């Protein structure tokens, strides 16, 4: 197992200094010890501001990019291949100030993964993340399709 996924505090430390997130000012604020819940925030800054003074859309998209995949990798360990397959974003209103995104891995998702990959089939679950502003209003909705398959030696 990858050392990064052995402890939530280590994951948080490493993800917060990872250049693709660090330079956009994306910060993992909390992650549960069991990797089932995470909260990410980004504050408007010179590094993520667009031409009209709001958060650049690519930065909003980036703040959701690795989390479901990495959280599932930590939960499911080395038995599975897990990738982001595709994603789309619906921009609902401009991001100003601080925005947050919550990621939750439910029992239902874990059960669905187990059921749908038991014989080696690929499973393509869809998860939605809502990016919210400080008032709790949705700024963007990101729909992500994951690719999950049990590795051959665990089928």
UniProtKB/TrEMBL annotation:
InterPro entries: DUF4442, HotDog_dom_sf. The keyword Membrane applies. It comes from the Bacteria. Keywords: Membrane, Transmembrane, Transmembrane helix. The chain crosses the membrane at residues 46-68. This is DUF4442 domain-containing protein.
